[in-house]
Design a protein that fits this description.
The protein is an alpha+beta fold. It is built from 16 helices and 14 strands. The strands form 4 sheets. It has a 5-stranded mixed beta sheet, sandwiched between helices. The chain has a 4-stranded mixed beta sheet with strand order 1-2-7-6.
Amino acid sequence: MPKHPLISIPLDIPDVRVLQTELTKAGELILTVESTLTSTACRRCGRIITTRHGLDQPRLLRHLPILGRVVLLRIRPKRFRCPYCDDHPTTTQQLDWYDPHALHTKAYERHLIVQLINSTLSDVSEKEDVSYDALLGVLERSIAKTVDWDTLPPLTTLGLDEIALLKGHRDFVAVISAVSEDGELYLLAVLPDRLKATVQDWLNSIPQAIREHISTVCTDMWEGYITAVEEVLPTATIVLDRFHVARHYRNAVDELRKQELQRLKSELPKAEQEVLKQTLWPFRKRSSELEQDEQARLEGLLALSLPLQQAYTLREQLTTIFDTARSKKEGLRRINFWRRRVEKSGLRCFDGFLKLLERWMDLIANYFVEHQSSGFVEGLNNKLKVLKRRCYGLGNVVRLFQRLMLDLEGYRRFSPWPVPTYSAVHGNS
């Protein structure tokens, strides 16, 4: 069978004809093309004009690579003269597959955006040999700086949380996301701070039709969030997130563990201190998740400290209540019973948590209505932390929103291949 040194590959650009193909010494393919369209709209009056008036200056545009080679398209846009306007101005033909001031075709810009998902501007700039500023321009044109409400389905659950842009500096930004009826996750905003006024102004900007559909708001115990939601979304059920509640009572027990370890190390002979080693994670893990050797190490520790044994048991009992209570009434009854057991135990490590319960009990108990939590928000926060590390910090809130939106929505919006939905991958909650 004869071998052919050449193959034909469709350019896949509408209304374009290839005039010449050139392979440079650097291995780049330069394709000279021309438009097959014979008219354009007058830049002044907007009417369709067909009278040709020469060609514009040649343009060289980066296009999608072919067989690993850089591809450049050379085109001289057609010009047309308007017979309708008084001074008969000329207009350069505008084509849909590139922007007049861009250095790349729209198809190649889409390729760059896909490369930027879960990556950095610097990395993609190096890999694609595209300038940092040009890549930043592609990001600006491709990803909006605010959410487009018209593209969103009905949203049922809103999530509010915060993250520090710089660890230890308390420069918190508020991250707001939502879940639709189908279980799809959507990023809605990254606000510059978590002040009540800022959050309230943003909530007021939600279109009324979407606002009326929101039935649940999951948040942490930040009063600015809670009061803002109460004023703007008075019919929504506010749920204080189980994750944040658990962190409070588990941290309280962990502080007691540290105190008891210090005491035991000072009282026990060195030969008997071996039992205290490698007990951190067996103590922190849920009892149902312990391996056999971990269970043995935990029992050895608890046998040496009655207060620690009591605190551990109470911690696990409260976790069980959150796992198994099936109504708000049942949840309230069992938490109040648990609180009385704490008071009878004489333990002081839970004092701060009991005050927290006294203040927020009703909103905490709303969790038992539908067992709704801010798990989706915490997932976003983890993704945001990874993004910050990858980019060595992101101090610009707008850029942070764009990059997080790209990581979340990029494959769904820009990939040329079918991408499974969030609900298909994670299951509907």
